[in-house]
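3.2 Worked example (two chains)
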Amino acid sequence: MASLNVGNLGEYLREQRRNAQLSLRQLADAAGVSNPYLSQIERGLRKPSAEVLQQVAKALRISAETLYVRAGILDAERDRDEVETRAVILADPSLNERQKQVLLQIYESFRKENGFGVGEPVAGEEAGYPAQDTGVDSGAAGGHGADADPRRTAG
């Protein structure tokens, strides 16, 4: 059986939890996971899912992508630039959460357009943000152009 390689993740989580001045129980409650399960993650005995890592990251107010790399979910070398870009966006205190998610969606669309990140979920989808809701309208939904209903006429 291959090593879980989650010791580094556990040590990092413990350090982040202590920096946030949270007890194990407080972080477990905030992340919506059990206290024993979080303890096992910190001790390197369990490899959490991406969903659990996202919940923990949100509770610690840190980048989920950083945890994904430490857990081996993302390839550190290949994805380092993308992770760092996302982390900078997520850490920007001048943006609200919705603005951060929209900016990440635009960033992902440009990466896909340029042939990177194809097939990967857009950041924020897991958190319940629709990937297409960037506030940009193609015009078709507004009843203009070729897709407009011909039965509707100005009257």
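3.2.1 Second chain
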Amino acid sequence: MTKKILLSTVIASTLLLSTQAGAEDATGTANFNLVYPITVAETEQMEFGDVSIAADGQCALDYSDTTSGAACVAGGNTANTGLFTVTAADGTVNLSLSAADTSVSGVTFTPTLASATGTVASNTLAVDVGGTLDIVAASAAPGTHALTYTLSVTY
């Protein structure tokens, strides 16, 4: 009887060891994309100069620092297109404008871009921003005003 118990213990131990023996490894993968981080800085503020509130009208600023429209007045500060410097990897980037400020009563500000894309060369891109001011004379107040907007740049 002792031999049978001993033999069955040896067989059970062997079976147990054979099912636990061995190991296996697996290799995982980590994906990533190395890029130059995009930085954007306003290097010149947009300037419309003097704009009339004597009557309803519009003043537009183009990409060559020129204003036009019935509400544009000669004199005052020199018109200047907004300018941003983008630093990024060479290639095409997407450009968009948003968050045009509506805090000045009687004025609707719409910033504009010449193109929705730009080409970064030598890790730099200059982006000109123009725009329009639509004036509602009855609700506009005289004085110096500043409005904000956001330029977004993505790969």
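3.3 Remarks
The chain has a mean pLDDT of 90.
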